Amino acid sequence: MRMRVLTVCILCVAAAAGCGPSGYELLVDATPEAQWDEAEAKILTNIRQLTDEQMNIGDSGEAYFSPDGRRIIFQSYPPGESEYQMYTLELTEQFTAKRDTIRRVSPPGGACTCGYFRPDGGGILYASSYLNPSLPNPNFYHRTGSNYTWNMPGGMDILAADLNGDNPRQLTTTVGYDAEASFSHDGKYIVFTSDRGGNPDLYVMNADGSNVRQLTNKPGYDGGPFFSPDGQRVIFRADRLQDDHLQLFVINADGSNERQLTTHSSVVNWAPFWHPNGRSIVFTTSLHGHRNYEVYLLNIETGRQQRVTYRARFDGLPVFNSDGSKMMWTSQRGPSGRSQVFVADFALPEGF
Predict the structure, then answer these.
(1) 22 vs 8: CA distance, rounded Å
(2) How many CB atoms lie within 10 A of CB 34?
(3) Which of 75, 192, 255, 270 has the fewest Cβ atoms surrounding its Cβ within 10 A?
(4) d(C-alpha 264, C-alpha 19), whole Å
(5) How far from the centroid of its chain's Cα atoms is residue 278's Cα?
(6) What is the rounded CA–CA span in Å between residue 11 and residue 268?
(7) How big is the chain by its Cα radius of gyration, in Å?
């Protein structure tokens, strides 16, 4: 699942520098804590918190914008429950939360993850194990030397539903883990992660669940995929370099020309998301320590990187709205210190 790192954040990796495949050197930013606000303000302004515990939810995150930017879908722990469920929340024209519009859109039972809006704005997509909540799966993600594990339930399937959560429809029926799904921008295709072949790889299917074809087929875990704005490429994370040490990759939508974007063996790089310009991405990195994940920008054509967030705790799972004017992400910077959803005005730096 894309989000399990949020509430634990105990991946045992050390911050380190290294060289990427383009030959650039990634330097650790030594900005003093007293200058963090000033450093963030070069890219992020008007930061505001969208979710909190007063909404009768627990830890929340992995949020995505609707196509018109007036609604988000995210996952959160309902009070008294032990698995994530899916919620939607409406936003004002100023991108603040309409607090009384929060709505649970997933059925009871099982675990849910990876919500996404249909590109026409008329429905949602997410993964749930509610139909087979107790089905085991030998595949799971575990960092050696760490207490961190995320499960891949054998009953996890991809569902489509109406915008309000009504009429959930099962798109995948194969036994095993099917999740981490997102649409192409034209709404014709869905890219997702599945271990139906015995190994977690990327697959593409039509929006109605038909015509499933495999996109990647290599040892290790491949996941968190997103189509580029033009639909020609897919960005994703994989642990090809070293077991459970996630790095970033890009591949053509027809399965050709796979390219590794980061190669930092002691740093975890994950949760990539496209900027609307189609040449840059934001992602989450442990470069500054396994308890201090931060958001970075990467131009995948030049290899240029720049730090975006500056806080002592978790910042990650960044996404953009349709025109790139807003960045939304999950952070523990709020008063409670728990994972919640934040949004800010975003200014793309020169060179990206």
Answers:
(1) 33
(2) 7
(3) 255
(4) 7
(5) 17
(6) 9
(7) 18
Show contacts of 342-347: CB within 8 Å, 24+ apart. 342/47, 342/48, 342/49, 342/50, 343/47, 343/48, 343/50, 343/95, 344/44, 344/45, 344/46, 344/47, 344/48, 345/44, 345/45, 345/46, 346/43, 346/44, 346/320, 347/42, 347/43, 347/44, 347/45
**140 near 111, Cβ under 8 Å?**
no
Instruction: Please name the residue that has the structure tokens 């039509």.
Output: 206
Sort 150 into a burial class: Cβ within 10 Å, 0-12 / 13-18 / 19+: middle
Give the list of residues 6+ apart from residue 145 with CB closer than 8 angstroms, or none: 12
- Of the candidates 163, 63, 81, the residue with the CA atom closest to the CA atom of residue 130: 81
Q: Which residues does 6 contact at the CB level (< 8 Å), separation at least 6?
A: 59, 61, 62, 314, 316, 317, 330, 339
Q: Which residues have CB under 8 Å from 272's CB, separation 6+?
A: 224, 226, 235, 236, 237, 248, 281, 282, 283, 298
Take residue 63 and report the two structure tokens written for it.
Answer: 């949020």
Percent of all residues in the chain with a pLDDT value above 70, rounded to a whole number: 86
Nearest to residue 17, comparing CAs of 301, 270, 318, 285? 285
User: pLDDT tens, 125-142?
Assistant: 999 999 887 776 655 554
Read off the amino acid at residue 48. R
Q: Are 48 and 98 within 8 A, CB to CB?
A: no
What six digits make up the tokens of 330?
């999950």
Percent of the chain past pLDDT 90, that is, above it, reads 76
Domains of the chain from N-terminus onward: 5-346 (2.120.10.30)
- CA end-to-end span of the chain, whole Å? 29
Instruction: With beta carbons less than 8 A apart as the criterion, state whether 315 and 5 touch.
Output: no
* In contact, 181 and 223? CB cutoff 8 Å: no
The Cβ-side half-sphere exposure at 345, using a 13 Å CA radius, reads 7
pLDDT tens-digit series, residues 26-46: 445 668 888 999 999 999 999
Q: For residue 115, give both structure tokens.
A: 């919500």
pTM of the model: 0.91
